[in-house]
Every structure is written in C-alpha cells, then in structure tokens.
TrEMBL record:
The gene is glpR_3. The keyword Protein biosynthesis does not apply. Keywords: DNA-binding, Repressor, Transcription, Transcription regulation. Pfam families: DeoRC, HTH_DeoR. The keyword Transcription applies. This is Glycerol-3-phosphate regulon repressor. One of its GO terms (molecular function) is DNA-binding transcription factor activity. Residues 5-60 form the HTH deoR-type domain. It comes from Pseudovibrio axinellae.
Length: 260
C-alpha cells in the first residue's frame, strides 16, 4: 500500500488551501518543527501535485484540473477509511453493486473484503482487482481503452455496460459539490458513466469527504438530492446541510476512529 500522508502534511495542505500561500518560517513556527522538516514536507507534497513549492514557501497549484490518482489515494485517507467502513455496514452479503471510478469507491471496495458472494460491476481496474481478493465475489468490468494513471474505462462502452444491469446499490464519488448541491466532475465521460449508474440502481450511495464541498470542477453530473444516501466523515457546510435536510437524501456522518 502507498505510504500515507502524516498528520502534519495533511494539516499543511488544509492550511495552504485556506490561505493560498504559507511561508516555510510560519509553518515551522506553527508546527514547532525545523524549517528543514517543513521543506521536506513541502517537497513531498509538491511531488504529489497537492501543493506547489515557490520561493520562501508553498502555494496552491495553479492547475484547476484533477490531481493524480496516486496523490488522491492518500489524500484525506482517515476520512475515506471512515466512510468506507460506514458504507460496508449498509451492504448485505450477496448484493449486486456498481462502482464508479475514484479513490473513495476503491477504498469502499477494500472495506467489503469480508463480505460474501458480492456481484460487483465496475469500469475501474483498481476496484476490480480489490474485489477479486475475495474468491466468493463475481466481478464484471467493461471493455474499452484504459486511461493512464486512473486505470479506468470511460465513454460509450462504460455507459452501455452500466445500462445493461439493475444494481442493488450504486457507489460513486464526485470531483466536487457546488454550493447549490450540484455534483461536479472534470470530464463529461466521467459524469455520463456516473449518471448511468444512478439511473440503474435501487439505491445510490455518494461517498464524499468534506474537502469536496466547494471544490470547483466544470461538468455538471446531477445533484445531492438525486441520491439515496450521502456518506461523509463530518457534517457538510450549513448551506449544503440545509439542501440535504429538505430532500429525500439521507446524510450518514461517518465517525473517524481515533488514531486513524
């Protein structure tokens, strides 16, 4: 498994994203470590594409597109683990599940390793391999061209694949959630595949950590009010919470275990 971010590195990301920039000296003072330690943290976070090293400090990267799969897999990992464990409690043995692309759905698949006889349908190689660790599972994956990095298949093949079945539960994440509850993605094909899952499942589970609220992306892919359950590690912002409370969607706040 990939090495995870330290608590300090995760806090540096949150701080820089809220401020836009932080100097090495201010971070050193705040976290009570040497400037050399902070520079090592900054170097790693910059290599992962989570922040950008600049003279005297670190800032938010200018590229508004998505970051690499490798970096996303370890970002907010405590929250994603809490979400995955909570989702697992809502899934019965023998269920038929559709998984979209994304690091949080993959971690949910990992949390289901102890379940029996699941039928799993996905357009992501990482989810498929994870699900195959349990030999009682049946795993189906769409054909087509794999994207580098994310190891997923998008386009008409994936959409037709998901439209061919009726799933007990669809499990998916998003790139961001706008202030009005709109679900956002960076790519039209990602949005179309997710909507194909939503249209062909009895229950839809949105798995989203709090960092996705207010995160900007440009492709619309439905609304919070379209899903059955929303799994998050803590309450979303007040405006989003108000939208959920007046909709059929149910918010499930997933407790993070101490020491995660």
């Amino acid at each position: 498994m990939e090495a995870v971010l330290s608590t300090r590195q995760s806090e540096i990301i949150s701080l820089v994203r809220s401020r836009g920039f932080a100097s090495v000296e201010s971070l050193s003072t705040q976290f009570e470590v040497t400037t050399q330690t902070i520079r090592r943290d900054i170097n790693r976070l910059s290599e992962l594409g989570l922040l950008r090293r600049v003279h005297g400090g670190v800032e938010v990267p200018p590229n508004r597109g998505n970051i690499t799969y490798k970096a996303r897999k370890i970002l907010n990992l405590d929250a994603k683990n809490a979400i995955a464990l909570s989702v697992a409690n809502y899934i019965d043995d023998g269920a038929t599940l559709a998984f979209s692309i994304g690091t949080t759905p993959e971690i949910v698949a990992e949390a289901l390793e102890g379940h029996e006889a699941l039928k799993i349908f996905t357009n992501n190689i990482n989810v498929a391999i994870t699900a195959l660790r349990n030999t009682s599972n049946e795993v189906s994956i769409t054909g087509g061209r794999l994207r580098h990095g994310d190891l997923d298949v998008l386009g008409s093949n994936a959409e037709a694949f998901f439209r061919s079945y009726k799933f007990d539960i669809g499990i998916f994440g998003v790139a961001g959630v706008d202030a009005d509850g709109t679900l956002l993605d960076f790519n039209e094909d990602e949005a179309a595949a997710r909507q194909a899952i939503m249209a062909n499942c009895r229950q839809s589970f949105l798995v989203v950590d709090r960092s996705k609220f207010g995160r900007q992306a440009h492709v619309r892919s439905g609304s919070l009010t379209d899903v059955t359950k929303i799994f998050c590690e803590e309450n979303p912002p007040a405006a989003i919470l108000a939208i959920i409370e007046t909709s059929p969607a149910e918010l499930v706040v997933c407790k993070q275990e101490s020491g995660l």
